[in-house]
Amino acid sequence: MSLISFENVGLRYSTGPEILTDLSFDLQAGSFHFLTGPSGAGKTTLMRLLYLGQKPTRGQIKIMGRDVLALSSRQMTQLRRQIGIVFQDFRLLNHLSAFDNVALPLRATGMNEAKIDKTVKELLDWVGLGQSMHALPKTLSGGEQQRIAIARAIINRPKLLLADEPTGNVDKTIGIKLLRLFDELNRLGTTVVIATHDQSILEKFDRPVLRLENGHVRQSVDLSGLKSSISSVGGKS
To answer: Is residue 133 included in any domain, yes or no?
Structure first.
């Protein structure tokens, strides 16, 4: 079953030339893909479309069976709640504790505080930050801040998790630990797409790799020997 489907998708800003051209691909529910390629290949722009931060100019995007262009604002908000996003710059609220940063998505849904307390504490323990739940982000290391960002992204058990260069601000040891968290979440059923330029990560984790070069997929490699479901992608950041 396809969780994500792009068909002849194009994107342009104002009257300028198309930035993305004729993107057509499917990603299956429960899959784990790395998205890689040189700077300017289109990774960030493609991720923006995936997390509904941008609508296409033409073509069709379906996420979880929903046609993105046909959604109302309310329906779009509901769909976004099933998508977890980890940004490279973390985007934590520095005046809030680790606990309160992670609790934000749950409070947005109106969950009662007793359940929030239990859920957030369990997740912070799972990512190894149970002892730091009351700390402010600025007092924590880059790797700890990234784990807070990951916890916040997955607190609602999203069907789709997107991460843009999640290991870019941490050392390789921490980066491997973070990827293992993503791997475990994938084993629990979440579809995962991670944009990265780190070749060592690609070699360490045996998952399909989608490569964008000069705006197109030049190769699509599943390191375990399985074929990726991508047919073609085009674009520029």
So the answer is: yes
d(CA 99, CA 50) in angstroms, rounded, equals: 27
**What is the arithmetic mean of pLDDT over 208-228?**
58
- The domain in which residue 111 lies consists of 92-150
Query: Domain for residue 174, yes or no?
Result: no
Model pTM score = 0.84
Residue 127 lies in a domain: yes
Indicate if the alpha-carbon torsion angle 73, 78, 79, 81 is positive or negative: positive
Work out how many domains the chain is built from and give that number: 1
| Sequence letter at residue 56 | P
Structure tokens at 5: 């489907």
Task: Name the H helices within 109-220.
Answer: 113-126, 142-154, 172-187, 199-204
Establish if 228 belongs to a structural domain. Answer: no
Average pLDDT over residues 127-142: 93
pLDDT band (50, 70, 90) for residue 146: confident
